[in-house]
C-alpha cells in the first residue's frame, strides 16, 4: 500500500479536520492575501520618523517593567542559495567574512546594553538567518561570549535558547558545541525529502543528514526539535509530500512548521530560478494541505495554528492549552511576554510599546554602527488603540478563540462596543461556519483555524492604508 493511500485511511482525532469539516470551496473563497501577524501593527506601518533616539528612550523606559529579555541575532550568511528563499542573506563560503560582522554585532550590543538594566534575565535567545551554523565553532563560541558579557545569559532550566540549523553543514560535533554554549532547542531546515524537489530548489539534502542530527540531538538531551517543511514547491504533489510526511513522522520531531511557499520572483531574486510551470496548482496545494493536517493529526500532533504543529507534551502545545501562547517575529512562542532585542542586519526589536527595525542592507547597518549609533532605520510607537488591537489579534491567533469579556476587563473598555465594526465584518465568516459566537466568546471552527489570519484582519485598523501591499496567501 502506498503512503498516500495510508494517509487517506488514517483516522482523524477531534483536534484534526475530519472530512465533514473540509470545505474546499470555502477555502478558495477566503484564500486572500493577508498579514501573518507576527506583530501588530505589521512592519508595513513602521516609519522613518522613529529613530535610534526613540529606541534609547524605549530601552530606558522598559527597565522599570522588569520584564525578562529575549535576544534575536540575525546571521545573514549562507554558503549556497536555495531558490525558494525569501530571507535576508549573503551568499559566501568564506567564514572569515563573518568577522567584521561579529565585531559590528558586539558594537550594537554595547550601544544597546548601555541603556538597559542587564540584570533582567535573558529567558529567550534565538539565532536566525541566513544560516547561523555558517559560523565556525570558534565564531559561535565568541558570539555567545559577547552576548553573555553584554547581557548575562541564563542557565535556568526553563530558558528557551534556539538556533536554526542547515543539516547540510552541521554534524554531531556542531550539536555538542551548541549544547556546551547553552542552546537547548534546535530548528532544522528540511523543506522536502523528495530528490526531484530538492534539485529544483537547489537544496540536495538526503534524509540521513537530518536523521543523524536528530538522533544525536535526542541523545544529547535537547529539549525540543523543530523541522521546517514547505509545501507548494516545484514538482510537489499530494502523493510525493505525503511520502515526505511519512518519513518525517518516523523521525518524530517535537514540532513541525509546514510553510506555504509564496512565489514572489519580482521581490526575491533567487525565486526567478524556479519555473512557475513546475509549481503545483491551487487544487494540488489544497490537497497537500489537507493531507498534511490529516497525517500529522493522526500521528498525534496538535495543530497549533496556521503552519505550526506540536506534540501534546511540547511546551508550545502546553502554552496554547493554558492560554499563555504568544506571537513574535519568529512565529509562535511558549514564553511569557519579554522585551525583544533584535541584533544584526534587518533585525526587529519589540521593546515595551515600541517596534524598531535595523537596515536590511549590510552597508547601511555597518555605517550606522561605525558612526557610534544604533542602526535603527524605522519603527513605531504603539498607541493605546494599537495595543488593544494587538492584544485581540494575538489572543485570536494563539488561542483560536476570543473572550471579549476578558478584553473588556483587561483594557477597561466595552469590547463588544469598541469592536462593533469588526464584529459586524465577521458576520459573513460566522454565517459560513468559520467562527461561532456565544455571548462574549468567539471560537474558530476547524475551518476557521485554517483561515485565522482572515478572521484577525477584521480587527486590523491599518489594512485600509496598506491596500495594494503584497502579503502571502492564507493557504
TrEMBL record:
Pathway field? Porphyrin-containing compound metabolism; protoporphyrin-IX biosynthesis; protoporphyrinogen-IX from coproporphyrinogen-III (AdoMet route): step 1/1
Where, per UniProt, does this protein localize? Cytoplasm
Reactions catalysed according to its record: coproporphyrinogen III + 2 S-adenosyl-L-methionine = protoporphyrinogen IX + 2 5'-deoxyadenosine + 2 L-methionine + 2 CO2
| SMART domains (alphabetical) | Elp3
* Single annotated GO MF: coproporphyrinogen dehydrogenase activity
Record text on subunit structure and interactions:
Monomer.
Q: Which InterPro entries match?
A: Coprogen_oxidase_HemN, Coproporphyrinogen-III_oxidase, Elp3/MiaA/NifB-like_rSAM, HemN_C, rSAM, rSAM_sf
The UniProt keywords, alphabetically, are: 4Fe-4S, Cytoplasm, Iron, Iron-sulfur, Metal-binding, Oxidoreductase, Porphyrin biosynthesis, S-adenosyl-L-methionine
The name on file for this protein is Coproporphyrinogen-III oxidase
Q: Which family does it belong to?
A: Belongs to the anaerobic coproporphyrinogen-III oxidase family.
Where does it primarily localize? cytoplasm
Q: In the record's cofactor note, how is the cofactor described as bound? A: Binds 1 [4Fe-4S] cluster. The cluster is coordinated with 3 cysteines and an exchangeable S-adenosyl-L-methionine.
Per UniProt, residues of the Radical SAM core domain are 63-299
Q: Which domain of life is it from?
A: Bacteria
Q: Looking at the keywords, is NADP present? A: no
Give its E.C. classification number: 1.3.98.3
Amino acid at each position: 500500500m502506498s503512503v498516500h493511500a495510508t494517509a487517506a485511511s488514517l483516522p482523524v482525532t477531534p483536534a484534526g479536520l475530519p472530512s465533514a469539516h473540509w470545505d474546499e470551496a470555502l477555502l478558495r473563497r477566503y484564500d486572500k492575501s493577508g498579514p501573518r501577524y507576527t506583530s501588530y501593527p505589521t512592519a508595513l506601518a513602521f516609519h522613518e520618523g522613529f529613530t535610534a533616539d526613540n529606541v534609547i528612550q524605549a530601552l530606558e523606559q522598559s527597565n522599570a517593567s522588569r520584564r525578562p529579555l529575549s535576544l534575536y541575532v540575525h546571521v545573514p550568511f549562507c554558503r549556497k542559495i536555495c531558490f525558494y528563499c525569501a530571507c535576508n542573506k549573503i551568499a559566501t563560503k568564506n567564514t572569515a567574512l563573518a568577522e567584521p560582522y561579529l565585531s559590528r554585532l558586539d558594537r550594537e550590543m554595547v550601544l544597546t546594553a548601555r541603556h538597559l538594566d542587564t540584570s533582567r534575565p535573558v529567558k529567550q535567545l534565538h539565532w536566525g538567518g541566513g544560516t547561523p551554523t555558517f559560523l565556525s565553532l570558534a565564531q559561535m563560541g565568541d558570539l555567545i561570549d559577547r552576548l553573555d558579557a553584554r547581557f548575562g545569559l541564563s542557565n535556568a532550566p526553563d530558558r528557551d535558547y534556539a538556533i536554526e540549523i542547515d543539516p547540510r553543514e552541521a554534524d554531531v560535533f556542531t550539536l555538542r558545541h551548541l549544547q556546551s554554549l547553552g542552546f537547548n532547542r534546535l530548528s532544522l531546515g528540511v523543506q522536502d525529502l523528495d530528490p526531484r524537489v530538492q534539485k529544483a530548489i537547489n537544496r540536495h539534502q538526503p534524509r540521513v543528514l537530518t536523521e543523524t542530527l536528530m538522533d544525536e540531538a535526542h541523545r544529547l538531551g535537547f529539549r525540543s526539535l523543530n523541522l521546517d517543511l514547505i509545501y507548494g514547491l516545484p514538482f510537489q504533489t499530494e502523493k510525493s509530500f505525503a511520502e515526505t510526511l511519512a518519513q518525517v513522522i518516523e523521525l518524530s520531531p517535537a514540532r513541525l512548521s509546514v510553510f506555504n511557499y509564496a512565489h514572489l520572483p519580482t521581490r526575491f531574486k533567487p525565486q526567478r530560478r524556479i519555473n512557475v510551470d513546475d509549481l503545483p496548482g491551487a487544487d494540488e496545494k489544497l490537497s497537500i494541505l489537507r493531507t498534511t493536517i490529516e497525517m500529522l493529526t493522526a500521528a498525534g500532533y496538535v495543530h497549533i495554528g496556521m503552519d505550526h504543529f506540536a506534540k501534546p507534551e511540547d511546551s508550545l502545545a502546553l502554552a496554547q492549552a493554558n492560554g499563555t501562547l504568544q506571537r513574535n517575529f519568529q512565529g509562535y512562542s511558549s514564553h511569557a511576554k519579554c522585551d525583544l532585542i533584535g541584533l544584526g542586519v534587518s533585525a526587529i526589536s519589540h521593546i515595551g510599546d515600541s517596534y524598531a527595525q535595523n537596515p536590511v542592507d549590510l552597508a547601511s547597518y555597518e555605517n550606522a554602527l561605525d558612526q557610534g549609533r544604533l542602526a535603527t532605520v524605522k519603527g513605531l510607537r504603539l498607541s493605546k488603540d494599537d495595543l488593544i488591537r494587538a492584544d485581540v489579534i494575538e489572543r485570536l491567533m494563539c488561542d483560536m478563540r476570543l473572550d471579549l469579556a476578558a478584553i473588556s476587563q483587561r483594557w477597561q473598555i466595552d469590547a463588544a462596543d469598541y469592536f462593533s465594526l469588526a464584529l459586524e465584518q465577521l458576520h459573513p465568516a460566522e454565517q459560513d461556519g468559520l467562527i461561532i459566537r456565544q455571548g462574549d466568546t468567539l471560537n474558530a471552527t476547524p475551518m476557521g483555524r485554517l483561515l485565522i489570519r482572515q478572521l484577525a484582519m477584521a480587527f486590523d485598523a491599518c489594512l485600509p492604508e496598506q491596500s495594494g501591499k503584497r502579503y502571502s496567501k492564507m493557504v
